[in-house]
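Hey, I'm writing a tutorial for new members on how sequence and structure tokens pair up, and I'd like a real worked example in the thread rather than a made-up one. If someone can provide the structure for the chain below, I'll link this post from the tutorial.
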Amino acid sequence: MNYAVVGEKVSASYKAVFQQYRRDDEIEVASQNHRHLSGILRDLTTAFPHPVRVLEAGCGTGRYFHCLKNVEELVGLDVCPEMLQAAEHPVLEDEITVPNIRLMCENIYLASLRANFFHVIYSLGMFGNGCPVTPEILGRFHAWLAPGGKLFFNVVDEATLMPSARLKRRVKRVLYPVLPDVVQKTLDERENRMPFFGLTKSALEQIMKQTAFSSWRIHRHVCQSPLWQGVLLECRAQKTQLP
């Protein structure tokens, strides 16, 4: 997979909507879904007996910055510069307690970050539409986490799709390798407009088994938001502590 192309497509799609996305932040923070995620982020960052360093992969307009507690440094990484510009003044800015926030315009699949540095890495709303969860990206997260560090991310559950769409995806996975080149090219061109990388729980479990994370769990969460309703898979993992 060409991750540079993936990044370009995602950046272009958000460049067209970043202003509306920032306005939507004001709506989302009052939702049950945001309260759910806010509680998880608060618990993750306060689980350490010391201030922590945090990476948000795909931070967008900074929707979750105000949820973080006990954080001394936050790196907000996103591929879209317009989204990062909006993140300079995120929603509920006066509630943010992080003293040092660095915004980085990078492709998460290609970025080079310091190993064993972050205590918490999280990514919300990035995986599924346009961005795939792969053993390679999870390997990057594992390398960037300090020993004992925690990872939290969500991805769109394939169950969110209509049954007919799910059937088409299953058929494509089986038949694609034996299709003529011209048919494969047509299918690739369709998907490249903004590919869907949703997963089933079992598929995500298989991906996690290919990583260096020895401790992880996945559960399904029904998203109740005025902006989007569907099913998400939420994964929490932890890097092994040093002896």
